[in-house]
Every structure is written in C-alpha cells, then in structure tokens.
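User: My advisor, Dr. K., asked me to get a structural model of this assembly before our group meeting. I'm new to this, so sorry if the format is off. These are the inputs:
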Amino acid sequence: MRVYYGIDRPVVIQYFNWVKGFFTGNLGYAFHTGTSVARLTENSFPVTLELAIFSTLIGVVLGTLIGLFSASKPGSRRDFIGQFFGLTALAIPSFVLSTTLVAIFADKFHYFPNGFEYATPWHNLSLNLQQMLFPSLVLGIAVAAPVMRTARSSLLETQEKDFVRTAIGKGVKLRRVKFVHVLRNSFNPIVTMTGIQFGYLLGGSVIVEQIFSLPGVGRQVLQGILKREYSTVQSTVMLIACCFVIINLLTDVIYRYVDPRIREND
Amino acid sequence: MTKKSSRKTWFYYYWNSLSGRIGLILLTLLLLGALCSLFHILPYGPLAQDPTAIIKGPSWHHLFGTDQFGRDIFSRVLDGLRRSLSVSVVAVFLATFLGLFIGVTAGYFGGFLDTLAVRLSDIFFAFPAILLALAIVSALGHTWIDTSFAIAIVYTPIFVRVTRGPVLSLKELDYIKATKVLGYSSSRILIKHILPNIMPILLVQVALSLSWAILTESGLSFLGLGTQAPDASLGLMVSDAQSLVSFAWWTLAAPSLFLMLSVVSLNLVGDGLRDSLDPTRKSI
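Assistant: The format is fine. Below is the predicted structure of the whole assembly, which you can bring to the meeting.
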C-alpha cells in the first residue's frame, strides 16, 4: 500500500507526482467514499458557480445603486446613510448574517428551504432557487459593500471632470448626465472590484455553504479538512486558485468592452 | 521641539476626522473591556457555570444574560474579545514584520530577490484568504498560536505589496540618491530614510488588516477550527448560539455586536489614519 500511494518515495518526488496527476486530470481519491476528487468537484463546482453568479448580480446591482445614491450628494444625509450601509456590510461577518436570517425565517416563519436535501436546478428548479435565496442574499450584501465603496469614490472622481461640467452646461438632462456620462465612465474600478469578488466567491464561501448545507466547493474543502483527507483539500484548493487566476484574466478582457479607450490603444 | 509639534499636528488632523474620532473612542472602550478580561476583573469567570441561572435573559445580574450552562455572556464576550484581539494582533504583527522586511528589501535591492518576492506573493494572492487560512490551520493545529501563524501567512503578501510599491518610487528620489553618494550603508538608508516615509501607508494597512484578521479568526472559530471549547471566542459563541437563538436571542446578539463593533472601530481608525496621514487625499 505504501508503494501504491508512493509514500515510500521522497517528498519532492511525491510532490511532482501530484503535480503531474493534477495536470492530467488525476486529482487523487477521497479515502472515505472512494470517489475521485475530480468527480466530487464535477458535482460541487456548479453549485458554487450558481451561488457566485447570483451573489455577484445582487452585489453589483445593490452596490452600484447605493454608490449612486451616496455619491449624488456628497456629505449629505443620504451619503451618510449609504456610507453607513457600506461600513456595516463590511463589518458584519457572513456567519452572523446567516445565523440571524436562519433564526428569523426558520424559527419565526417556519420557512427554511435549506433544511431539505440539496436540489439541482435540473431536478427541482423552484426548490433550488429557494435554497439559493438566503445564501446569495448574504453573500450579495458582502459583495455590495466593497462595490459600493469603489463605486462611490469612482463616481465622485468622475463627477468633477470637465466633460461632465460641459455636458451639464450643454443642457443635457441631469438624469442622462448621471447615468450615461458619469456612470459609464466610472465603470472601470467597479468591474475590477466585481472581478475580484467573483473570483473569491468561486473559491467557495466555506462558511455560508456550511451553514446553508450547500454541497459546493468550499464545503468540499471543509469536509476534507474535518475528515483529514488531504488529497481532497490539496487538489480542490489548487483548482480554486486556478479559477481565481482565470477570472482575473477574464476581468482584463472585459475591460476592453467596457472601456473603448483601452480598445483604441491596442 | 520640532518633533513634538509635528506629532501634535498629526493628532490634531486625526482628531479632526469624524470617522477617526468615533473609531478611536470605540476601540479604546473595547480595549478596556479586553484588558478587564486580561486582569481577571470580570463580573463572573468566563468558564464558571451556574446551574441556577440557565438561559436567563439580560438583567442587572447578568448584563447580557446567560447561556445553556449558566455562564455569564458578558464575561464570556469580553474574554472572547481578548482572545480574538490577541490572535489578530500577534498575526498582524508577524505579517507586518515579515511583509515589511521582504517588501522593503525586495523593492530596494531589486533583481532576482524582487522577482522572487513578487511571484511568491502572487501565488498567495491566488488563494481566497479564508480557504488558505483553513488549509494552513488544518496542517498546523488548533491552538491560538497556530491560528495566528495561519492568519499571518495569509496577510504577509499584502504587506509585501503595500511596502514594495512606495519603496520602488522612493529609491529613485534625489535625497535617497544623495545618501547613497554620501556612502551610507544600505541598512542605514533603509531604516533612517525609507522606513519613515512608508510608515503612514503601513499604519493604515495595519489597522485594516487587524479588522480582517478578527473576521478571519472568528470565521475559523465558527467552523470549529480556531479556539476550542470551552474557551470563549466570539466566533465560537455565534456558532453555539445557532441552536439557542430561537428561544434566547441574546446568545447571538451579544457576540455578534462585539464582533461588528471591533471590526467597525478598526475600519474607522484606518479611515481616520488615512485622512490624517496622507495630505494629498481629500476626505469628503
């Protein structure tokens, strides 16, 4: 058995064997169930992906709207409210928010779709969406906070630019200036921030997946740690890191579509 | 004389920023609470059980109520706060020291050392923080010093990046070149001339990292991989409260509140420091 797992070889060789296996798709096996880590990830990754997409959507819409709301009148009461939201959302740990939501909805309203076994979207779409509701809300708020802060500072910076003053002077409607001229030109930092957050979310939000018992990538790592299955932990964490790098690359590509100036320079 | 007056103006600017002021007051109060726990001047022992007072709501006897073993939640929250803060402070101290050393030397000397440092920190950045911390904790163990190490390893690359950037631009400035011409040793230039100039950025980063470290520590404890029961920890208390919250809301509210207050106060202190230390950045 020692020979089979290669434990009799030096650590360096073991490491290179693992790297070789990683690139050829052999991620090792989970000892408890005997399934391969690749198969495990095949099942868990779509869950995390779905969660990440929903949370990012909620986060970007919420964050940009509050950023707009806050930046429309810097220093005013609405700015204060917006900033207060940003600070609170940044400070509230996801597990506190999740536990509170569970406490309110499961105990008071007896509504807790995550109590059932996880349903795939192909199997039972409505239950699946209900199960995604709370976790994506929690993560969405967590994403909204940095997005809001970035949006606010970026909007404030753009508002002071000359072309905005020109547009207002030209008699363009204020609403149009706000949404077309200012927002469009403030998108770059927002896209960067969203990309970073989406990358992190793809890494699986261990805590939220654990609380809402969603069988995603983060939970897979945690279970691996708790059951001391190092091949699961090692390969899954490596896969997550690869995803993160790819997302960063994609963000750079998206810039070209958001910002014509970058397209022109190439 | 000049040093004294410049320090006064710095604090004057800091006190002028509203967020800095609120943050400092909050943080001082929280630190006082944590110190009370350190010197064992809590109303009850954090581990002392009282079978006659199980799951009691907030009252004058038990300010934040009691839990399922009749332990006083107020005392436990302060004890947990002390533990979270000490883990975070040790972690951030280690990360700052290590990151500063690597970042400054890499930025100043450049070459192969620089490439190595940048590539290594890039690798670390590819892992989500909590996941990396989880993996390291699972390899190291579950005592508080292991948690500190894990968090320190996760945050070191941030300090490498934060310090390396300014050093790159600083070393091209004339007065640094002048010190080189004068024949000062590299260590003297680094400590006497470069370090004071990156101090403001570093301080802001320390404040923000402390708040993240508290979140990471409590997250690890929540998952059962940080502080172990029966010791009190804010994350662990929230985790325990999951089963109690339906009939005892205070078991969840108290640790959550303190967790959020500490993170908010550190964020505010960071904002205040940034506003006061960086004259080019206008606070709005």
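One thing worth pointing out at the meeting: The two ends of chain A are 56 Å apart (CA to CA).

User: Perfect, thanks a lot.
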